[in-house]
């Protein structure tokens, strides 16, 4: 039997008892064994634990106790705390860190009977757009192994694209779910800030971070979002608001919907093939009944600067906890201050140091008003602009990235060029609104992602647009041949 | 916007990160480049615009003062690089 299944397909077969979770899990562990030497997507594979969880799921299923994720093999980005299983953030700093508790999303997945296959590689502390900042190894794009899978949730995107897991969780601070989803031709959503609890997500930039699903199709995205959403008093920014059944919003047409195309997203440096693919996709959305108009978000060109002041500032505060005293890497041979400074010198990689330095500078005496406060004010203008445009439009359509996946090594020496690859996704985190990237075609065999953006808590709206488009196309059914 | 070697060392000290000579040079160049790019923000008129700290309208979230179980000292200290009894062991702060 073909075991390359979506969540909903696997669920049906598990429910009808045509396959067992142990069979399904064994298939994925075998697949991991076969392709991992080429993709390098996992930092840790938890084979034994997965089979134990699968056995438990099979017992539950035998008693007809089955939820949509029961027995489904999933991978977890290595920034989400998993009790008793190493959570490294792909950093030397946390290479041997074993969390004493589960993140809220893990509590939810465990209660739902999901099977964890392992932890997915990422840019160190989620800072990066290519996984090249992992302290351990670079993950390879299964569509072209010489190219990056995007980042920072590169491992999470690759395992789904390469058939190494049914689905995965990532985290997104400036595009870290959507950009790799686009680069790997899978579905990836950043929910509204506050929709999913950040409890147990290792903090990068706390006003921007959000956990979200990476899946093979839009139905799976809705199912996984159902499972992880909801209020949690341990994250005071999670919003006490009921969680709808997101699968109910999936309808095959877009009659009466108004979609905006923000012209500022078509930046200099956007590849023609990407712009053309999105144009073709927009025509398809019109055929499905949507009214499409060009809109303007004039402060978009400032989003990069706003983001790269606010995110590093918050990171510099959050990462001050790594002092070699409480957990993590520890240099022990000097005085107290020497130990702290050496711990941080040895434990952090170049990009993390760069961002801590940048953030420390922006927050330092004499510069705070000119940089950090200024960025927070421009953030307000960006937020207001989104609010205004969503009074007239149900959703916005943009490319997820200005380019197709780039070559490994191409941008590692030029931080600004690397940062520009998130130009279309950063504003969405600044505004806190939800965005989803879905497969929208290929340029010379390399994936193009389309981003659909909605207003705060309008996940149902963007899922409906995503679903209608997906049903009218077959990009999501194309799988890479890993050479 | 050019960060001098002294400024880089000052920031590194605030951030408590030791830097090698090569890192000091590279940081000075790369941070200067980035800050130069970010100067575009100064062009935006933000008179009378309040700052945004986060995008969801929740303010001063409180919880009840309920006593609940927390992690055991053993769990909390399990990852401690140096431990003595139920304490983290550190080098002297004042000598």
Note down, in words, how this protein is organized.
Chain A has 483 residues and is of the alpha/beta class. Chain A is built from 15 helices and 11 strands. Chain A has a domain at 7-256: Amidase signature (AS) enzymes. In chain A, strand 10 (435-443) and strand 11 (446-453) form a beta hairpin. By secondary structure, chain B is mostly helical. Chain B has a domain at 5-43: Orthogonal Bundle (Histone, subunit A). Chain B has helices at 5-14, 21-38, 73-77, and strands at residues 83-84, 87-88. A two-stranded antiparallel sheet of chain B has the order 1-2. In chain B, a hairpin with a 2-residue loop joins strand 1 and strand 2 (87-88). Chain B starts with a helix and ends in a 7-residue tail after the last strand. The model of chain B has no long low-confidence stretch (mean pLDDT 93).
Structural key phrases:
heterodimer; A: 483 residues; alpha/beta; Amidase signature (AS) enzymes; eleven-stranded mixed sheet; globular; B: 95 residues; mainly alpha; Histone, subunit A; two-stranded antiparallel ribbon; 3 helices; 2 strands; 4% strand
Blueprint of the fold:
The complex is a heterodimer of chains A (about 475) and B (about 100).
Chain A: H1 7-15, H2 21-39, E1 42-45, H3 47-62, E2 73-77, H4 104-111, E3 115-120, H5 154-161, E4 167-172, H6 178-184, E5 187-190, E6 210-215, H7 218-228, E7 258-262, H8 272-287, E8 291-295, H9 303-318, H10 336-347, H11 350-363, H12 369-389, E9 395-399, H13 415-420, H14 426-431, E10 435-443, E11 446-453, H15 459-471
Parallel strand pairs in A: 2-3, 2-4, 7-8, 7-9
Antiparallel strand pairs in A: 1-3, 4-6, 5-6, 5-10, 9-11, 10-11
Chain B: H1 5-14, H2 21-38, H3 73-77, E1 83-84, E2 87-88
Antiparallel strand pairs in B: 1-2
Helix pairs in contact in B: 1-2
